[in-house]
Structures are given as structure tokens and as C-alpha cells.
Predict the structure.
Amino acid sequence: MEFFAIANINMDQEDIREKITLAALPEYCESFALVDCLAKDSCEVESIWGRFQVTRQEITGGLRFTMPTCPNCFTWTITSGLPPTPEKVVIHSTFNRREHEQWFIESMEEFVVQWKAGLEGKAGSDIPPDHGARSSNIRKLQLSTYTRNND
């Protein structure tokens, strides 16, 4: 499955690469509560889905992040300067399932919304940082559902 969001900000690939470090992940996305950086391009994150390794890779237009230890092979990109909206920042995430539990799909939708809000908020966009964000009660429900299903 894949999910998209478009941040209404002007950042080029150099800005994206410079500002979005592994240590800065929680500043941009509420899904990350803790980051333990292991190396320049690898860290461990505590997320609403559990604790996973995250890698960071420079790509055309920006960055690709992967969770190689995630059973869903979750990955996301933050890019700019490319179609369909070269003047804005595109957040794109995927995982390797065609179907999943509804709470998990909703958490993926929320993930790209959080990135959009985080990018716009950090860039000083005219759009409020919480524009389109869901309430934290959904995240709490998703976390409790995840915990129950994985005990």
C-alpha cells in the first residue's frame, strides 16, 4: 500500500538533506518518540508500531528512509523538485502488503499527515502546523490496539 501528502513549502533537495537528519525525526513526525542514532545513516526509533532500525539515504530530490527490521518493509521518501509538484515537498510512504488491519492503515495515513504538518510547521508555512492532523486520541487507540495484538 502507498500513501502521499504534499507539504505546501518550498524546500529544495539540499534543504531536505541538511535539515532532516535522523536525530531530527521526532521534530518532524510525532510517530517517533525516541531516537538512538547508531551511525550517520542508521538509528533505532521508538514508534507507535514498536522499536525499529531506520536508515537514511540521499536520493534524487531528497531523502529515502527505510525500516529494514520492520515486518512490513516500511519506507518513505521526502522529495522536492520533481513532478507532479516540483515547487512543493512530496511525502510518499509504502509498505509491502495489499491488505492490513484498519488501525494500521489509519496509522500510515496519519504518518504522512504528521510529516506534512511537521515540514510546514518547521518551514514557517502559512498553513497551520495541525492542518489536517487527527486527534491524539486516534494515535493512543492505535498504540493500544498494536500493544494488545502483539502481547
In short: Residues 2-149 form a domain with the Alpha-D-Glucose-1,6-Bisphosphate; Chain A, domain 4 fold (CATH 3.30.530.20). Residues 22 and 40 are 8 Å apart (CA to CA). Strands lie at 2-7, 32-39, 42-47, 50-59, 62-66, 75-80, 89-94.
